[in-house]
Amino acid sequence: xxxxxxxxxxxxxxxxxxxxxxxxxxxxxxxxxxxxxxxxxxxxxxxxxxxxxxxxxxxxxxxxxxxxxxxxxxxxxxxxxxxxxxxxxxxxxxxxxxxxxxxxxxxxxxxxxxxxxxxxxxxxxxxxxxxxxxxxxxxxxxxxxxxxxxxxxxxxxxxxxxxxxxxxxxxxxxxxxxxxxxxxxxxxxxxxxxxxxxxxxxxxxxxxxxxxxxxxxxxxxxxxxxxxxxxxxxxxxxxxxxxxxxxxxxxxxxxxxxxxxxxxxxxxxxxxxxxxxxxxxxxxxxxxxxxxxxxxxxxxxxxxxxxxxxxxxxxxxxxxxxxxxxxxxxxxxxxxxxxxxxxxxxxxxxxxxxxxxxxxxxxxxxxxxxxxxxxxxxxxxxxxxxxxxxxxxxxxxxxxxxxxxxxxxxxxxxxxxxxxxxxxxxxxxxxxxxxxxxxxxxxxxxxxxxxxxxxxxxxxxxxxxxxxxxxxxxxxxxxxxxxxxxxxxxxxxxxxxxxxxxxxx
Length: 505
Ligand SMILES: Cc1cc2nc3c(=O)[nH]c(=O)nc-3n(C[C@H](O)[C@H](O)[C@H](O)COP(=O)(O)OP(=O)(O)OC[C@H]3O[C@@H](n4cnc5c(N)ncnc54)[C@H](O)[C@@H]3O)c2cc1C
Ligand code: SF4
Hints:
- The protein is mainly α.
- The protein folds into 3 domains: about 10-120, HUPs (Rossmann fold), CATH 3.40.50; about 130-190 and about 240-320, Serine Threonine Protein Phosphatase 5, Tetratricopeptide repeat (Alpha Horseshoe); about 335-500, Orthogonal Bundle (DNA Cyclobutane Dipyrimidine Photolyase, subunit A, domain 3).
- It has 23 helices and 6 strands.
- The strands form 3 sheets. Strands 1-2 form a two-stranded parallel sheet. It has a two-stranded parallel sheet with strand order 3-4. Strands 5-6 form a two-stranded antiparallel sheet.
- Helix 4 runs parallel beside helix 5.
- The two termini are about 45 Å apart.
- Flavin-adenine dinucleotide binds near residues 263, 303, 371, 399 and 408.
- Flavin-adenine dinucleotide binds near residues 265, 266, 270, 392 and 407.
């Protein structure tokens, strides 16, 4: 059995199977696009990549049973399709790689359990650390922090290491990864490699438009890699053209520049069209050959070998309870503009606008614009999680949920991030040009043109002061809060009430 995010040609599932004898089963299911409303590009990417993979398998002589979304009798759910497949083929056992989502794993266990068919899970070799490796790492630790895990991974796998320690004498060049652009902007950035749809993908695009006309997002710009060859070309393009500047401007944002120096490789890696190891190796080689500075290369590798591996470990350590945590007891509904981009806040209009166009936003846009607003407005974490899970082309729950619940919404009370990523509009003003031409003023917390981020930042601190007192890294922010006079507090509270009523609808 091969799932939509397991499209590696060297999968252990294939290594264990007998070509021409065993059935390779794959299925498209409408429910995967509707259990949370999915961006059309996300659905299209999964289906196009799956269909290309199935065509490759068939060409290699595998017996493929591929259920298409529009096949007669498609039950619409992966569980329903698996049940039908078991009754069709009467397998001795069902073999698959660990699923990327707790819900899906449970569904398969239930179906196979009820049918009395053994289900064999194979460990997923596409990650540097197995789930057990991470459990070992977590054992006995009071706090889990990415940085310590990352160093362990660097050592264990000998990545960016020199004789006496980390390359360049430092584990982390984060401080060099936070530049913003000057007022003239990023200048000419080489266009990232795109992959115009072929016949298979075009058919999928038509199907998605027809089956999910009301789902969010556009297919206008669809040019994501859908085969391993394309994913490799996308990697080479990034390493050659954008990696050298990636580090410096990793956190920067600019209007009408959705990709800047980012790699656009997350979806290809998550679907296993591209090996994370190949991306890490290529980046390290670029540094060793003098083609990219260490700060850029370390910044890129930290995201993959550090964050990506760490969030996967955290997800499997804490699921299924993880999805229910709400440490700050946030209960507000997700504002409607998350689905339309229609808001006067220019930063959110830009970020959500490009998200709807491409199914893409880079890390800081997700964390410090879309996520920050939801945090400050006190949106219920489950609703924020469902939005992120549906709206980005690279969203698979093992990576999305910890980033949303843990890093962005502080819903785990600090088990993952050492403090909430709470900031005023001034952070956005520093890192982008969004505030220029916005109707609001990022420096103001009260008055007609007060920036909603800034207003809600103070309101967030006031609302959660009790809970945040036990977070050591919040001390400075709370000290600033304590300096606010009672009148100022009252005024901000009133303004926050208006923002919630007028802006967060
Ligand atoms: C609220 C929120 C939700 C997110 N949801 C997802 C998601 O559903 N799927 C997803 O793949 N990433 C997610 N991320 C992480 C990150 O934003 C994306 O991986 C990145 O923006 C993808 O674009 P890129 O390939 O151009 O990345 P680059 O900026 O070029 O980074 C290189 C690679 O590093 C990895 N990476 C970077 N940051 C992270 C991170 N925080 N966690 C895990 N891997 C990381 C990705 O594989 C990425 O391709 C989320 C981050 C936040 C803050
Ligand atoms: S002023 Fe506030 S709302 Fe407007 S772009 Fe800046 S941060 Fe966003």
